[in-house]
Amino acid sequence: MEIQAFGTLNYVVLVAYLAVIMLVGVYFAKRQKSADDYFKAGGRIPGWAAGISVFATTLSSITFMSIPAKAYTDDWTFLIGQYIAIAILPFVFIYYIPFFRKLNLTSAYEYLEKRFDVRMRLFASISFMLFHVGRIAIITYLTALALMPFVDIDPLMIVFLIGVLCIVYTFMGGIEGVIWTDVIQGIMLSGAAVLIFVMICFNVDGGIFEVFSLSAEENKYFPADKMSWSWTQSTIPVLAIGFFFSSLQQFTASQDVVQRYIVTDSVEETKKALVTNAKLVACIPVFFFAVGAALYAYYTQNPQLLPENFNTGGILPFFVISEMPAGVAGLIIASIFAASQSSISSSLNSISACYASDIYSRFGVEKTAEQNLKVGRIITVIAGTLGVVASTYLIMSNESELWDAFNSLLGLMGGPMTGLFMLGIFVRRANANSAMLGVVAAVAATLWVRASTDLNFFFYGAVGTLTVVIVGYLAAPLFKSNKEEKEIEALSM
């Protein structure tokens, strides 16, 4: 397929976006006086901004492009995941946010040492850091890979524009800079989804009515054959279970989201953040699926516009570059960059928070706030550089399968991490040794299920989480608790 010329005006729009993001980082750099500023923003973030940040953080560029492709080629069943994420929020409000706010944590995994011991804290923190370095590489690589066939920008330049500039503004602005750039990026993502949908509808004969009626005729919403139970297929009940545990992991055990709970000045503002996120999640992803439906209608009416043997996974950037006016196309591509950078910058700052809190400050002599700030910035650069180097290697060697397998194995730690927090908060009798046994059993069970069964991968989170809780509960009487009973009561339900 012939690569489309990106055009001068599109370049101007993209460069303008990148310049604004860099200026935000420069502006907030002057406020970064201590580790508390760098990792908690000194509690200065309003709830609505933290909420937009959570939304932008959890929506990567891969999601931005893959959801329309999913709706174009298949159906809307994955939309259920967005509403599962909303449904768990009351549970998070009641049982998790008070813990994180009361303990005034920098790293979410500090709680695991207070409740259990340092082994649990290190397991969770190191798992998180390794997974997110891999996540940075994968997001950068797949974004470059998705855009390569459609724009005349060198893939290594795409990696530089996404990764290196992200390192720079995260290094300078800390979590405050990250959140306010997330606000810009979240607005761009939302606006781009609505804009694309409206523009496609204007180009479809019959307009919006034809878009939705054609999808209904083709049974592309929630097909009846997806309603049944299955152990191996991604049917709706399986998706509901999978998204429940993945959302639980994200909102209760993942530093990049949990960190947003402590950047506001009160519990009320923190809850406002999650309400804002819920409103966005309830509305904006529907437009991503609607874009896929609109693209399906458009190219059904105009099949000659698609190249022969076209890979429909790139249907969104193909339409943007080939059909949208100059300038508007640049804005949409900038939104794809924004989706990448919002996820990567959050990963960078949360990795540095985990290292500074769980390793650097935890061991050795007591560290000053200035030393923690310096180390946090150094780790931001190191983690970002590792991600950029890894994504560059993947582009040059085309060996994505090996990295995907590695990233998948690290991702299996999400279930055990979620289980540890559930065990600590809800199972009073659990202790450090029973928790350790639960984690070992969960990792072993999840790896065995992955290697030896055909169980759908959406069940992996449930297997990991529930194994930790069940084994941790049953094994507790076998060990003498190394915490005083009153300490455990203070840190559990």
UniProtKB/TrEMBL annotation:
Q: What is its main location?
A: membrane
Give a GO molecular function annotation for the protein. symporter activity
Q: Which Pfam families match?
A: SSF
Q: Which family does it belong to?
A: Belongs to the sodium:solute symporter (SSF) (TC 2.A.21) family.
Keyword Ion transport belongs to the record: yes
Q: How does the record classify its membrane topology?
A: Multi-pass membrane protein
Keywords of the record: Cell membrane, Ion transport, Membrane, Sodium, Sodium transport, Transmembrane, Transmembrane helix, Transport
What name does the UniProt record give this protein? Acetylneuraminate ABC transporter
Where in or outside the cell is it found? Cell membrane
Q: What sections of the protein cross the membrane? A: 6-28, 48-67, 79-101, 122-144, 156-175, 187-209, 229-248, 280-299, 319-339, 375-396, 408-427, 434-451, 457-476
The UniProt entry's GO CC annotations, sorted and at most eight, read: plasma membrane
- PANTHER family, alphabetized: LD47995P-RELATED, SODIUM-COUPLED MONOCARBOXYLATE TRANSPORTER
Q: Name one GO biological process term.
A: sodium ion transport
